[in-house]
């Protein structure tokens, strides 16, 4: 009986609406964008509220009118033809004018907000270059000589101006809690700025790529740490120095403009690198090894690092180690005995050993073997202060020895599409379908892990 079902409809509707309203009351939305944590999100939220209110008024008005019309003027037996309104000038002007007025009421706050948030950032803002890579984020502070990856430090209370660029395809930069999102477009710089509220120091926020960019798009996260001005200063002072234990004092990072063909520049320099390496290596190795040893042994002064204890659970990467076909097997008992000095030797001599040298793709500022390479020529994350970062691989894994060892052995199983090659001996490279004949064994990887962890 259709009538019986119809009578139940209003009750079902009430239940559905109530369920929806209740669902909105939960606070299970740690990545919500409806916050007032920055000026940008405050403005966006105010606009959203205004449009939602206007939209709701229009919706209710139109629906009520519609229902009234349907019921009141429905066809009855013997009812005469209704009065026709075709050509009724007043009516037509009215129903054109009212929507126009509503659109004006929507347009004014929208355009105002667009102009406000698209204007140039205030002079004196902190400049940060955001460079998208498949599939990780590079963050540069050109005025401060700092380059880092996947973890962004910004001082609470100061406006930060992001210059958004990409090294390859389109990406999009979004920290829902703080603001965004804006695209990173090839051969063009986009800008985005916001001011984290002064009272949100010591917090961590999730960031995401929100423009499909290839096989590991979903694995392209980052984290934002809002810190006090004082802590930010300490962090910068340390990050701009060379790696701990390195023989070279801090050298200013090349002002970070993106060269058109970074790959070509790198290749030329890499070709010249081995000769330089051998000459300088011999000269400084002893000194460096002593220094690295010292760095390993002493409680290293790594400036300010965001304290682990203050990182909320929802911002800690929880990607499990791959299992089944994608599992990377590693002898974890080797890790506690990894030798940092041997690891460093290995990294700096891999070119000579005929293996894929880490330093063709990575910068460790202050290492002698890095001479001639600039930040702009690196195609992988800057590792100078790798040990001060809490996450790796586009923020999808925690940085710990077990995970790192498997990453070095076969990153392509750990992250689909990874540009970093498979490096473990006998490992299957899922991209070429071939097993790697000459690579690193577990012992060597354990040593490299130990070295990387000293890069505080
Ligand atoms: C062909 C270039 C290339 C070579 C060679 C290479 N890497 Fe990488 N490496 C990358 C890229 C690209 C990433 C970023 C991958 C991602 O997150 O998707 C990466 C990521 C990493 C990371 C994680 C860094 C972070 O902050 O997320 C570490 C550590 C690392 N590489 C160490 C090494 C070591 C050690 C070697 C040599 C044994 C090496 N890499 C060789 C390109 C390279
Ligand atoms: Cu993406």
How would you portray this structure in words?
By secondary structure, the protein is α+β, with helices and mostly antiparallel strands. It folds into three domains: 56 residues; 104 residues, Sandwich (Immunoglobulin-like); 193 residues, Cytochrome c-like domain (Cytochrome Bc1 Complex, Chain D, domain 2). Helices cover 37% and strands 15% of the residues. It has eight helices and 14 strands. It has a five-stranded mixed β-sheet with strand order 3-2-1-5-8. The protein is elongated, with a radius of gyration of 29 Å. About 12% of the residues have low confidence. Bound molecules: heme C and copper (II) ion (CU). The site of heme C (HEC) has 28 residues, from helix 8.
- The level of helicity is 25-40%
Provide the low-confidence segments as ranges.
246-299
Order of strands across the biggest sheet? 3-2-1-5-8
Write the CATH architecture name of the largest domain: Orthogonal Bundle
Q: How much is the average pLDDT?
A: 84
User: How many strands, which pairing sense, and closed or not: the largest β-sheet?
Assistant: 5 strands, mixed
């Amino acid at each position: 009986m259709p009538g019986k079902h119809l009578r139940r409809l209003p009750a079902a509707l009430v239940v559905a609406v109530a369920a929806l309203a209740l669902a909105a009351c939960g606070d299970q939305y740690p990545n919500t964008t409806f916050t007032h944590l920055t000026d940008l999100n405050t403005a966006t939220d105010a606009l959203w509220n205004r449009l939602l209110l206007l939209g709701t008024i229009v919706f209710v008005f139109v629906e009520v009118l519609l229902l009234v019309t349907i019921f009141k003027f429905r066809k009855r037996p013997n009812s005469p033809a209704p009065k026709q309104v075709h050509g009724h000038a007043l009516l037509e002007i009215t129903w054109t004018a009212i929507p126009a007025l509503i659109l004006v009421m929507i347009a004014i706050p929208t355009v105002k907000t667009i102009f406000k948030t698209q204007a140039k950032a205030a002079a004196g803002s902190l400049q940060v270059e955001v460079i998208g890579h498949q599939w990780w984020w590079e963050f540069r502070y050109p005025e401060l000589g700092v380059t880092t990856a996947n973890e962004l430090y910004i001082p609470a209370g100061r406006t930060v101006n992001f210059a958004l660029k990409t090294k390859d395809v389109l990406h999009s930069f979004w920290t829902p809690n703080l603001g965004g999102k804006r695209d990173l477009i090839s051969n063009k710089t986009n800008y985005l700025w916001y001011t984290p509220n002064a009272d949100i120091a010591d917090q961590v926020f999730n960031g995401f790529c929100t423009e499909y960019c290839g096989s590991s798009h979903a694995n392209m996260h980052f984290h934002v740490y809002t810190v006090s001005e004082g802590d930010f200063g300490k962090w910068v002072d340390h990050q701009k120095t060379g790696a701990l234990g390195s023989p070279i004092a801090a050298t200013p990072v090349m002002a970070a403009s993106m060269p058109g063909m970074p790959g070509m520049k790198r290749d030329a320099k890499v070709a010249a690198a081995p000769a330089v390496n051998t000459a300088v290596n011999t000269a400084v190795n002893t000194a460096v090894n002593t220094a690295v040893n010292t760095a390993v042994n002493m409680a290293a002064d790594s400036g300010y690092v965001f304290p682990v204890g203050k990182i909320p659970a929802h911002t800690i990467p929880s990607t499990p180690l791959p299992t089944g076909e994608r599992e990377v097997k590693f002898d974890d008992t080797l890790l506690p005995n990894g030798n940092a000095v041997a690891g460093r030797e290995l990294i700096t001599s891999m070119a000579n050993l005929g293996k894929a040298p880490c330093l063709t793709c990575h910068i460790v500022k202050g290492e002698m073997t890095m001479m001639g390479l600039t930040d702009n020529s690196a195609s992988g994350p800057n590792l100078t202060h790798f040990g001060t970062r809490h996450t790796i691989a586009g923020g999808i894994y925690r940085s710990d020895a077990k995970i790192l060892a498997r990453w070095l052995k076969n990153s392509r199983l750990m992250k689909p599409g990874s540009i970093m090659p498979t490096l473990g001996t006998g490992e299957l490279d899922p991209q070429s379908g071939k097993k790697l004949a000459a690579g690193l064994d577990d012992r060597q990887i354990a040593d490299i892990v130990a070295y990387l962890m000293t890069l505080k």
